[in-house]
Design goal:
Chain lengths: 371, 342
Amino acid sequence: MSSNGTPLVEVQHLKKYFPIKKGMLQREVARVHAVDDVTFSVQKGETLGLVGESGCGKSTLGRTIVRLLEPTEGEIRFEGRDITGLGRRQLRPLRRDMQMVFQDPYASLNPRKRVGSIIGDPLKIHEIGTQAERKRRVQELLEIVGLSPEHYNRFPHEFSGGQRQRIGVARALALRPKLIVADEPVSALDVSIQSQILNLLSELQDEFNLTYMFIAHDLGVVRHVSDRIAVMYLGKLVEVSPAEELYQRPIMPYTEALLSAVPIPDPDLARRRERIVLEGDVPSPIDPPSGCRFHPRCRYATDICAKVEPPLTDYEGHLAACHHPLNVSREEALHAEASVHTPFSAPEDATPTEPAGKESHPVPEKTPRSG
Amino acid sequence: MAERLLEVRGLKVHFATEDGLVRAVDGVDFELDRGEVLGIVGESGSGKSVTALTILGLTRGVNARFEGEVLYKGRDLLKLREEELQSIRGNEIAMIFQDPMTSLNPVYTVGDQIVEGILAHNDSMAKRQAKARAAELLRGVGIPNPERRVDDYPHQFSGGMRQRAMIAMALANNPDVLIADEPTTALDVTIQAQIIELIDRLKDEFNSSVILITHDLGVVAEIADEIQVMYAGRVVERGATRPIFYDPQMPYTWGLLGSIPRLDKPKTERLHSIKGAPPSLINLPRGCMFRPRCPHAFDKCFEEPALENRVEEPGHLDRCWLSVEDKRDLREATIHGELSAA
């Protein structure tokens, strides 16, 4: 897979705020900063893992990109085309290209519809094929995701959690999309079933040349499917790195803590390793902490962290936003530069360090896919 | 020896349904000593939750049939009348449920719900005293500003805090046995790490023992002393924690271990997965329950193996016909993905 050409998805300075309204006049009293100035891109055929705790804005980001939510500010490009301002009607043909797989296989399938219409309705809505052709296509999809064509007339309640998630995947595949946003597709499943679904998703990617945005809270799960991983905290991207590198060399302390929270099925190792337990919960995105948003929970935090927001800095293709970067040598720190398009809002009095370099590529080069 | 708190003997729990007899639990034995952490591991429908609920008498009903004994300090809980059971439930044996979002009543404050549990077992205590105790408990499980938060409603708590509140509620009467049924499944990994650590610490503080039920072997690696793996209502492997992880005997256990994405190992191309799904508990397969999904099944597997000690390590039991040598050869390949079953 080549990294040249336009990325499939490009997101520039994307913001999504939810207003909080009060009183008879429904005046806006505050805003939830769910996604706060995020810039990144996804290449064709790659999988971008998006990781963070509940409430960090990862689902909102996923939904805003497929335009299920209206962005507040910023730009979303799909295959080079600006889709930020498209209306309902204009979006319709695009819906074919962008599909979602949802977290809860129990809540995301209509219990009153048969599997045949759950998977076949997207085809019907987009007026693809005759009724007989659609039926054949659905049966074929059922086989592709590891179910059998006889399941066509069954209802969702007749299936187990893992099977339902397969139905959800078949529905997303029906229109032969280019991008699939999978929002925690395995977190509601048993581990034994999780691995089935993860394997299925990678097989389908190879077969249909799919691009995934894979949203999860568990760094263990995304490692298996991702080419690159973006870590999100309170509406901001705090680290973006080629997948394996993130595990070898986390730079942002938050990533380090996320890694140490993943359980290891090896009792001696698990008891020996130092576990960084993050205190408390993610702070409220209504009034996020000053400076680095992670500083109240960070064990390395100093005065500067509370005052100045660290820029997303490029350490040779591995971006991280931290005043006290881990696993970075002195030379690297010297050579690193705040990435030009800095997705972090600069303090108002600061002068821009770089001229606005529009021609520069907004993300690090995609690493070649392993395997 | 430590004090024996719980002894389950030949427990069977069957439910009569319109579709047939559901054999939810079909022969489970275990012991639990004071201070011990027992991990019960298995997939959905393996009978692990029904086992736990039955200990507390929460599966009683017109269509439920029980066999065997559940001895708590020598008394058979299956035979106790409901009133007698009530003095034990929530008092000496307490439970933390899986879903903190639905296990708390949304129309009462968190404090009220804890106070209710305290007063139910302490007639003489004044309400104000009980409320102070509730705040104390919330502090113990790491809720900041407990005196104020005690008057909050569940929706004002985050998921992790609700699970902490559930734990506080379970600990209200210093139980001897704490049963935690998938206490972290609905939570983020970061919060999961906090909760597991909390349970481990409180167990020592309250000198109680814990039954920790989960589908993820990774969760129990750190804190369990003993592990039993359940499948289709049976215990298929049991032993001390180290042998279960370093010398697992049952192909099902290998499958569970292999399915976990490992951060401590190099990345593999494919994750091992256990093909298919657990059997219907109405229509159980012939012979070994795991046979239809087992990549190593052979003729003998049409006969069900007993739960026996087949290795040198005493107390390490399994239900598998493969010879110890065969297991050693096949195991590495299965767990580490060179031989994928799917």
